[in-house]
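Note to self: user wants both folds in one dump. Writing first protein now.
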Amino acid sequence: MYFFEDNNVDHYQRLSSGGKTVPELATNSYDNKIAKFLGHYIKTDRSYRHIKRYRGKAVYDVTYQIDSFGRRKTLRNNINNKNALVLFGGSFGFGEGLMQENTLLGKLSNLNPKHNYYNYSMRGTSMGETLLWIDKLLTQRELPEKNKTAIFLFGDFQLLRIHNSLSHVASNGGNSPNFYLHEDQRVYGGAPFVKDHPLKTWLYQLLYKSRLIRYLKLDYPLVYGHYQESDYQLFTSLTKRAFLRL
């Protein structure tokens, strides 16, 4: 059992041990594959205790269980079920701060036990990481059911992530995938943003140290809440490409 206290620390990458925050390293081959393609180090087959505090008081104290494929464990899956619902997304989909029975999939498994439920959501991720996960990592062994329904839990802040805005790049060091929509309406790319744009990554991180920029919520190339129809096109193209591969 690992535990960490939330101080804007990504629990997939760094955990608290003995009062000290230490890097969490990938160990088995699947962990290393996740780290390679997604930029996250996920310890599989582990339980994590997450304590969130505000002004010294615990807001929540929950335990997350991660299965052998890096997914948050779900309850009551039945090997005889022929249908599966597969959830992707960020912390909302993951159910951060919630015990398993209170997550979206926890509630659905109670309402409809004839489906199996799989939670691939990860904190801070976007449809870009979802596409890489499906394309590079996901196997038939993980989702053996004949009929599958996939859902991505979307919030418009996800647009900042897939377009690698200043705030997002500054928060993750430019490790998110860099996709772009070509004139032929096909999606290209997928390498880490920092690899494609090392100078821009450095500049974004430098700029975001400014308290004024953070206070005014200045961002680039997109600003939260001020989107054009074209800003959604990359997301919809990534979603279509990802889910057609399931």
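First done. Writing the second protein, which came from a different request thread.
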Amino acid sequence: MTAKPRKTTITPSFLPSASDGETRHISVVIPAHNEQGNIGPLIDEILAALEGRDMEVIVVDDGSTDATAQEVTSRASQGHVRLIQHATACGQSAAIRTGVHAAYGHIMVTLDGDGQNNPADIPRLVVDLETAPRGRWVGMVAGQRVGRQDQWIKTWSSAFANKLRAALLQDGCRDTGCGLKAFRREAYLALPFFDHQHRFLPALMLREGFEVAYRNVSHRPRQHGRSKYGTLDRLLVSLFDMAGMVWLLTRRRGTANITEKDLGKSL
């Protein structure tokens, strides 16, 4: 008998949470909107890349109108696959947030559902996160794409926005648009949430006192479908969001050096 993947329908009054005692070491969260033809092979590659690891794959179907959900369901027999659905499209940041809240893992890995991120890079990011030197609280390892496989106008606009963002936010990230990231669940849950949050995760991690490391990752051409983002509208929205991020960063007075005094055992 073929097992069915978990399927949760998200409503405004319900956000799933890993609170029933089940745990995993790694949760791979994939936000996906109309990624028929891409999502199935991507799941296969992730399972192969993390074979033997204590892991799960969570696809958050963000209001797709194609066969994205059916492709995920068809991978149920491979195990470790979960499907969560938004009734309507809520955006990439909301889909990531839903997946992280639902995750059973301690380490989160995110990557885009279009298959342009290479799952073979995942183990290296996880190792970097797990083996950070003692005394350093690395909350995230962010991928930075090399050899971009996009149209020149998209690559140019992304480079412009990244340089402007890096100058304003001083987060050391040269490619905030790379969807491939590994981070600690508790670190992510400490961050303020807003629409398009996923574009500013390194800066937000630094704001909360976590360290961020970077690793070069590969990039592949899209095989099916079209990009969900236009070039000009994405650039304009990014500039608007950046102004909000600068405001947010100025409202942080610094991270507290917190210690608890041992008062001894109560009699």
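Dump finished. Worth passing along: The helical segments are 39-49, 68-73, 92-102, 122-130, 152-169, 185-189, 201-207, 231-250.
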